[in-house]
């Protein structure tokens, strides 16, 4: 069934000063200092805990099983050295594959924190985000999707010195309630929000480029860019991919060529091979690019236990290192625009999207760094496309239940190709579903400043219009992202229909609101069908 498209929105990240905040009761904290580089901070946190009525102790290889009495886990990530993109990718791959920082969590743990240094650009004078810490933040959020009922949060400290804030200030920040993304700057606590972009952020005008270079150019997204730019006067477009021009690609290019005057060429090149990139650059020595689009999609669906160094390195190099080599080698004009295609997964995460989210967040950090060097570069986190490759569709399907809706390429590109002043998000979504799912994960405040109101359905009206079975089917369809309730077999276990742990939490919330009945997540994931749930409600 082909889903209709929804109108995309142009959004940006914003950090707000928390002048007032809610606090959780004093916590019993287990600290993980897996590198030993945060020993001073760990000792300070342990010493300061008593002043807040909390307790804190270090967990290491010798006592990782001694989590009795703990309700909070805090992982301390030390400041990174200055690394090039290849070394940063290797460090991220090692972080998620070695997992020396992950002791596992007991049933008593309700909160997991990652403390990073310089992983976010929070205030105007912040340096570019550290790519390793930025990636760790996004991947950590995705790990949380494997542990429903446990809130995965992060606290970012400033990059100027390893831990400039007093341990008591850090410990107080770790007791912040209702926030999952916070940062300390000069002793002030900030929280992340996703907000509508104001009208001055983007200039919709697009000067027809002379030479466009599209990395990942023969994928569906790359071809969408090709068609969009060709129709807007691009004179020359070079599509770069490992596979080159296939029969399916040739068919679509024929349509674009026949409808436009653009000169479109396909170059087979593995951008992960520096020698191949050099050859590509030499072939274009007399035609520098004035627009470079990094549209390569490298979906890597792995949960934490499945991540190996080799798999993670492969995904990160394809997404991050290749474009770095292109920018160092390929000729470009002095005013060349650079657009890096990231994913909304970098912000919201998703089960099985640890490395995928991390690699996209590294692109966001790269764009910050390139702008600081004077380049005209932005990273755009795209939502769900109407037509996507099988791999990309698989990845975004994991986020569909969060409220992301398919958006048409032309409308989305019209927003993302504007003259953006900084990184942005272009996505279409169901605000009610997105907010409720994020609230279930502990991230509800992320969307709290969006201008569109969240609408709530009228249960009484629904009850008079449909029977309980139709209402229940509708709730399940909304939780798992199915468009047609007729596709759901009420006798089949819901896990066989694709229900995962995070979606089970959302279904339980919806049933509670609709039927005033509390379901057990273990029942939903243990093989219950719609018929079984209906029997529970009677």
UniProtKB/TrEMBL annotation:
<keyword id="KW-0511">Multifunctional enzyme</keyword>
<keyword id="KW-0597">Phosphoprotein</keyword>
<dbReference type="InterPro" id="IPR020806">
    <property type="entry name" value="PKS_PP-bd"/>
</dbReference>
<dbReference type="Pfam" id="PF08659">
    <property type="entry name" value="KR"/>
</dbReference>
<dbReference type="InterPro" id="IPR013968">
    <property type="entry name" value="PKS_KR"/>
</dbReference>
<dbReference type="InterPro" id="IPR036291">
    <property type="entry name" value="NAD(P)-bd_dom_sf"/>
</dbReference>
<keyword id="KW-0596">Phosphopantetheine</keyword>
<dbReference type="GO" id="GO:0031177">
    <property type="term" value="F:phosphopantetheine binding"/>
</dbReference>
<dbReference type="InterPro" id="IPR036736">
    <property type="entry name" value="ACP-like_sf"/>
</dbReference>
<dbReference type="GO" id="GO:0006633">
    <property type="term" value="P:fatty acid biosynthetic process"/>
</dbReference>
<dbReference type="InterPro" id="IPR009081">
    <property type="entry name" value="PP-bd_ACP"/>
</dbReference>
<dbReference type="Pfam" id="PF00550">
    <property type="entry name" value="PP-binding"/>
</dbReference>
<dbReference type="InterPro" id="IPR050091">
    <property type="entry name" value="PKS_NRPS_Biosynth_Enz"/>
</dbReference>
<protein>
    <submittedName>
        <fullName>Short chain dehydrogenase family protein</fullName>
    </submittedName>
</protein>
<feature type="domain" description="Carrier">
    <location>
        <begin position="463"/>
        <end position="538"/>
    </location>
</feature>
<keyword id="KW-0521">NADP</keyword>
<dbReference type="GO" id="GO:0004312">
    <property type="term" value="F:fatty acid synthase activity"/>
</dbReference>
<dbReference type="InterPro" id="IPR057326">
    <property type="entry name" value="KR_dom"/>
</dbReference>
<dbReference type="InterPro" id="IPR006162">
    <property type="entry name" value="Ppantetheine_attach_site"/>
</dbReference>
């Amino acid at each position: 069934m082909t889903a209709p498209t929804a109108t995309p929105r142009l959004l940006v990240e914003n950090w707000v000063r928390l002048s007032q905040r809610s606090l959780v009761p004093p916590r019993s904290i287990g600290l993980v200092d897996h590198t030993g580089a945060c020993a001073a901070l760990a000792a300070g946190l342990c010493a300061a805990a008593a002043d807040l009525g909390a307790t804190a102790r270090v967990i290491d290889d010798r006592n990782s099983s001694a989590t009795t009495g703990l309700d909070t886990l805090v992982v301390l990530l030390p400041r990174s050295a200055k690394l090039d993109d290849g070394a940063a990718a290797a460090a991220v791959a090692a972080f998620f594959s070695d997992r020396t920082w992950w002791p596992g969590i007991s049933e008593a743990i309700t909160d997991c924190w990652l403390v990073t240094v310089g992983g976010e650009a929070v205030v105007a004078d912040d340096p570019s985000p550290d790519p390793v810490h930025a990636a760790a933040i996004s991947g950590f959020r995705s790990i949380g999707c494997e542990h429903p009922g446990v809130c995965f949060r992060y606290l970012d400290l400033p990059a100027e010195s390893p831990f400039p804030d007093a341990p008591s200030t850090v410990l107080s920040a770790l007791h912040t309630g209702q926030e999952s993304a916070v940062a300390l700057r000069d002793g002030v606590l900030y929280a992340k929000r996703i907000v509508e972009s104001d009208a001055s952020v983007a200039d919709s005008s697009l000067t027809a480029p002379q030479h466009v270079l599209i990395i990942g150019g023969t994928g569906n997204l790359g071809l969408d860019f090709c068609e969009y730019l060709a129709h807007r006067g691009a004179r020359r477009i070079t599509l770069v991919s490992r596979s080159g021009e296939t029969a399916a690609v040739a068919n679509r290019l024929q349509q674009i060529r026949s409808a436009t005057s653009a000169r479109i060429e396909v170059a087979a090149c593995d951008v992960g091979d520096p020698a191949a990139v050099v050859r590509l650059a030499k072939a274009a020595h007399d035609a520098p690019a004035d627009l470079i689009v990094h549209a390569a999609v490298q979906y890597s669906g792995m949960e934490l236990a499945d991540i190996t160094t080799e798999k993670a390195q492969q995904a990160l190099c394809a997404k991050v290192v290749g474009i770095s080599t292109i920018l160092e080698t390929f000729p470009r004009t002095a005013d060349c625009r650079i657009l890096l295609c990231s994913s909304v997964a970098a912000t919201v995460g998703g089960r099985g999207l640890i490395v995928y989210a991390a690699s996209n967040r590294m692109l966001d950090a790269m764009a910050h760094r390139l702008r600081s060097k004077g380049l005209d570069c932005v990273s755009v986190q795209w939502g769900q496309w109407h037509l996507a490759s099988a791999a990309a569709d698989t990845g975004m399907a994991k986020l569909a239940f969060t409220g992301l809706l398919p958006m048409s390429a032309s409308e989305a590109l019209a927003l993302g190709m504007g003259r953006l002043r900084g990184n942005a998000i272009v996505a279409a979504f169901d605000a009610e579903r997105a907010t409720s799912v994020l609230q279930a994960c502990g991230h509800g405040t992320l969307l709290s400043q969006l201008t569109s109101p969240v609408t709530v359905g009228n249960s009484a009206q629904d009850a008079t219009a449909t029977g309980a079975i139709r209402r229940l089917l509708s709730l399940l369809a909304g939780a798992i992202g199915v468009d047609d309730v007729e596709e759901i077999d009420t006798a089949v276990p819901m896990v066989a229909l694709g229900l995962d742990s995070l979606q089970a939490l959302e279904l339980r919330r919806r049933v509670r609101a609709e039927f005033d009945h509390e379901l057990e997540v273990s029942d939903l994931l243990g093989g219950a069908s719609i018929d079984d749930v209906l029997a529970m409600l009677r």
